[in-house]
Structures are given as C-alpha cells and as structure tokens.
Design brief:
With 419 residues, the chain is α/β, with parallel strands linked by helices. The protein has two domains: 8-181 and 348-396, Adenosylhomocysteinase-like (Rossmann fold, 3-Layer(aba) Sandwich); 188-343, Rossmann fold (3-Layer(aba) Sandwich), CATH 3.40.50.720. Helices cover 45% and strands 16% of the residues. The protein has helices at 11-22, 26-39, 55-66, 83-91, 105-116, 129-137, 153-164, 179-202, 218-229, 241-249, 257-261, 279-282, 303-309, 340-343, 350-370, 383-396, 406-412; strands at residues 46-51, 70-75, 97-98, 122-125, 147-150, 172-174, 210-214, 233-237, 253-254, 266-269, 289-293, 310-317, 320-325, 330-334, 378-380. The chain has an eight-stranded mixed sheet with strand order 9-8-7-10-11-14-13-12. Strands 3-2-1-4-5-6-15 form a seven-stranded parallel sheet, sandwiched between helices. The relative contact order is 0.13. May play a key role in the regulation of the intracellular concentration of adenosylhomocysteine. InterPro entries: Adenosylhomocyst_ase-like_sf, Adenosylhomocysteinase-like, Ado_hCys_hydrolase_NAD-bd, NAD(P)-bd_dom_sf, S-Ado-L-homoCys_hydrolase_CS. It is found in: Cytoplasm. Pathway: Amino-acid biosynthesis; L-homocysteine biosynthesis; L-homocysteine from S-adenosyl-L-homocysteine: step 1/1.
C-alpha cells in the first residue's frame, strides 16, 4: 500500500484518539456503519477524499470502507492534518493517506495527484480542490466518476461557479447545505473550535476585549455567539444588508471593517471571500491586534499586504507570527491565516461532525444508486437523508418527539378549514 504520512510510529496514539472521537459519533458508528457492514452498498466503488485529516474524518473513512469502498485520503488544507491520525489510518485501518501537517503547497498538490491516480468513482471535497484539479488537469478521469460531495460553504461557492460556467461535468451533492450540517457543524462546531484555536495559540483573555467577526453566515453566527458568551464586546462586519440587520437585532454592533479595524483587539474572518482584511485595515489597527481566519482558504486576510507593510516578522510562539510595522505597531497573525480551528486546535467536536459525516456517507450511497440519473450540477442533500440524520441523532440522544395526529395531517393538507 502506498501512502505518505509523517511518522508511522505515531499510529498507536492516533488510534486511541480515533476511538475517543468514535464514542461521540453514535449515528455514524451505530446506525450507518452497522448497516454498511451488512449491506456493502459501496462495494466496488473507489472514493477519493480531500478532507481535513482529523479523528472525525478517520471515522468517516472507516465507515466508507466498511461499506465496501476502496478509500483514498489526502488533506484539504496544509495545516489541518493530525499526523497521528494519518499514521493510524495507514497502520491500523489499511487506508492509504497522503497528508502531512505543515506540508508546502507543492506537496499538498502532489498528495491530491496521488488520490486522483486511484481513479475515483466518487470524489469527496472540503473546499473543491480535488474536483477542480480533476477538471483542470485530469479530464480523462471524468468518465469514471459517478458524482461527488462537497463539505464547505467555500467549496459550494466554487462548484456553483463551475456549474454556471458549464465546466462541471458530473453531479455534486452540497453536503454543506444539509440542514443537519450547516445549522450545527457551521454554527456550533465552528463557534467552539475557532475559539479553541485562538485560545490555544494565544492564551489571551476574551472577556473584556473587542472582538470583530467578519461575516454573519452560520459560521460567523457561531463565533459571535460564543465570544459574546465569554464576555467580549462583539462587532460584526457584513456586505449583506439582511445579515447585517440580523446581527444588529441579535445584539451585536455592526459597522464597516475600516471602522472596526480601529478598535478591535481580535479579528476573525469567516466569509469565504478574498481580502476581507486588507492594507487599509492593517494601517489603522491598534498595537497588539490579533488577526485570524476560520474560513476555508487563507485568502480572507491579505497576507501579502501585511508582509509588505511589515519591517520585521518573527514567530513568537507556535501559530503566532508577529508583524512589526514601521511605526512600531505589532500585528499578530495566527496559523499563517489558515483555518485557526484546525491549524491551532483539533477542529470541530466529534458530536457535531457525527451529523455532517452521516450526510457524507449517506450521500455517497445515494450517488451510487442515483448518480447516473443526475445531470452535472450542484444538488442539495435529499430531504429524506437530511431528516433521517436528524432522527438518528435524536434517537442516539434518547430524545423522543411528537408525531402529527391524523387530524393534524388533514388540517395541514386542507385549505377549507380556516378560523
């Protein structure tokens, strides 16, 4: 088996951490994996996955393999790989992994190429780098692809652009748009893990600080909610007037980034867009401002502009780079502008990823059954899968909910019954 990981000697520690995460992923472990082991719905299918190599992802890979698939995994971000997990997947679960934490950009794309060499029938993306590389450099593989899945907001934006341009050649399910994904993973997962990453990197107090959140989508809502609960004065910046009003009515201050840049202590971007924090913002930031990103790619912060403004750069602690400007002000960039929750911490808690990866596994099964009937486009997760994941999660939590009575069903289906 070919693979490329940092050190196989880390495998035993990684296995313990995978098993620890598995305990908090009952939907994937008890409900889906058990059925997959019996039915083998993915038998004969090659799955190429470009995802964050974490303990939770490891349990998804195990589930897909138990379903009969050949699984190949590479990292979807150079800093998000957990090296012990990568080693454990190779040594203990015989799953080829091509990922090393801190790999340079060249190695990152070499690893994507390694997965594509296996000629996947289904692609699984977290940011759309695998599918975009396939379309740009390996179009000969397209006839063998049934379909794909995409986990992130950023990736879905890219895929919709591909579909709009007529460049997308096979169907892709936007797992990110499942209600049981973005309402929980994006909000509660990103909210908690982003703060975890900031605290691990800086050990700074959130309470009493001014915390600027750029973007008020579900990820931004989660971050803003969490730092507010920790005692921060939260400012939200937005380009969408509806989201801006929502942030205001949720109790946050709303202003432009140029205004916020003058008073913020912490800055976190979660927009999925490019250069949200730019040169004009760095020029007015306070001495000691801490800047980070929790969007998928490291483009939300204009790092080249910061490099240009700085007369000195020094790494003063893991994941913290100090940029000194010509007037003596210091700006601190966390995790090289990459996903702070995965680079400086461990990513989302297993419990919330349980639902996200349940959607991934069931969407792969759906593509095997229905992919040939779908046009090249971006699709939402079928409603029956989304609701099934919610029902399974409630069941695993020991929660029962009411069912509609026949009278209620009749009432909802009737237009004659009024006041």
């Amino acid at each position: 088996m070919e693979f490329h990981v940092k050190d196989l000697n880390l495998a035993d520690e990684g296995k313990k951490r995978i098993e620890w995460a598995e305990m908090d992923m009952p939907v994937l472990r008890k409900e889906i994996r058990k059925r997959f082991m019996e039915e083998k719905p993915l038998k004969g299918i090659r799955i190429g996955a470009c995802l964050h190599v974490t303990t939770e992802t490891a349990n998804l890979m195990r589930t897909l393999k138990e379903g009969g698939a050949e699984v190949y995994l590479c990292a979807s971000n150079p800093l998000s790989t957990q090296d012990d997990v990568a080693a454990a997947l190779v040594k203990h679960y015989n799953i080829p992994v091509f990922a090393i934490k801190g790999e340079d950009e060249e190695t990152y794309y070499i690893h994507i190429e390694e997965v594509l060499k296996r000629r996947p029938n289904i692609t699984m993306d977290d940011g759309a780098d695998l599918i975009s590389t396939l379309h740009m450099k390996h179009r000969e593989l397209i006839p063998e692809v049934i379909g794909g899945t995409e986990e992130t907001t950023t990736g879905v934006i890219r895929l919709r652009a591909m579909a709009k341009d007529g460049a997308l050649t096979y169907p892709v399910i936007a797992v990110n748009e499942a209600l049981t994904k973005h309402l929980f993973d994006n909000r509660y997962g990103t909210g908690q893990s982003t703060i975890d990453g900031i605290l691990r990197a800086t050990n700074r107090l959130i309470a009493g600080s001014t915390f600027v959140v750029a973007g008020y989508g579900w990820c931004g809502k989660g971050v803003a909610m969490r730092v507010k609960g920790m005692g921060a004065d939260v400012i939200v910046t937005e380009v969408d007037p509806i989201k801006a009003i929502e942030a205001k009515m949720d109790g946050f201050r709303v202003m432009t980034m140029l205004e916020a840049a003058k008073i913020g202590d912490f800055f976190c971007t979660v927009t999925g867009n490019i250069h949200v924090i730019r040169e004009e913002h760095f020029k007015v930031m306070k001495d000691g401002a801490i800047v980070c990103n929790s969007g998928h790619f490291n483009v939300e912060i204009d790092i080249p502009a910061l490099e240009k403004l700085a007369i000195k750069k020094e790494r003063i602690r893991p994941f913290v780079d100090e940029y000194t400007l010509d007037d003596g002000r210091r700006i601190y960039l966390l995790a090289e502008g990459r996903l702070v929750n995965l680079a400086a911490a461990e990513g989302h808690p297993a419990s919330v990823m349980d639902m996200s990866f349940a959607n991934q596994a069931l969407s792969a099964e759906y593509l095997v059954k229905e992919g040939k009937n779908l046009e090249p486009n971006v699709y939402t997760v079928p409603e029956h899968i989304d609701r099934s994941v919610a029902e399974l999660k409630l069941k695993s939590m020991g929660i029962e909910i009411d069912q509609l009575t026949p009278e209620q069903v009749e009432y909802l289906n009737s237009w004659e019954m009024g006041t």
